[in-house]
Amino acid sequence: MTQQIPIGSDAVADEPAGSDGTHALRPDVAYQRHAIVNVAYLGPPGAGDRGWVLVDAGVMGSRGAIESAAAARFGAGARPAAIVLTHGHFDHVGVLEDLAAAWDAPVWAHPLERPYLDGSAAYPAPDPSVGGGLLARLSPLFPTSPVNVGDRLHLLPEDGSVPPLPGWHWIHTPGHAPGHVSLWRPADRTLIAGDAFVTTAQESAYAVVVQAPEMHGPPRYLTTDWESAERSVEALAQLEPELALTGHGRPLRGPGLRQALHELARNFSAVAVPPRGRYVENPVRAGDPEATRSP
């Protein structure tokens, strides 16, 4: 039976939203929640045109809010140097095509995400049988068609660097998606984890609304490779992050973050993996024929 790992309020890193509509976590790291998902804005306030980077691209309908926040935070007309993706699921690329075109911005992602970002393939179908709440049951209704930013797509280099983000590194954290990456800045131990783990019960509509901080594995209805997902969490726990922003839920910091993340890594099968499900019994890994399907 799946469980959750409670998190004390002292571990929550949230600050009130500023005048630009974002929550500042570091002088050059802020985030904004769009319905069910977070996006990150990397760069100091007032950075100007091409002086900042957007991480992930929200859900459908969030373009105006992202553009407004970017203009308020970085300056009117300030375009990002790039859009960096943790992965290409619908709730992380909802307005990617529009933003990339409007800003004439390159898009960076892991090579294994390429089929889902150049219009050539769709992810495996969501699994509503994993339980946990309304969002899991509704998952077959989520958009599944891939986006196509192939003419702007750049693949992250093998050396782990993130060209538009000096000082940051990408870490391959598959399981939830074949080319899922997390972003890590060792100088201040800041982690942008995407959906490698999340801090809310993303399967439950109630939990998503309430946003009570809990440590969870990746959203179950879209995770296709639980063994890889477990290894990814173990790798991130070994980093001993000081601050973590996830794709869903509130950001965490300090000893409370590290304790909960280590507990998730130790007890991943009990805490994260659903008791049954299509991909529990029949995992789909990168390179499997089932990993891509016709769009």
TrEMBL record:
InterPro entries given in the database record: Metallo-B-lactamas, NDM-1-like, RibonucZ/Hydroxyglut_hydro
A Pfam family per the record: Lactamase_B
Renumbered residue ranges of the record's region Disordered: 1-21
Xref: SMART domains: Lactamase_B
Domain spans labelled Metallo-beta-lactamase: 36-248
PANTHER family on file: METALLO-BETA-LACTAMASE DOMAIN-CONTAINING, METALLO-BETA-LACTAMASE DOMAIN-CONTAINING PROTEIN
Protein name: Metallo-beta-lactamase family protein
Gene source species: Methylobacterium variabile
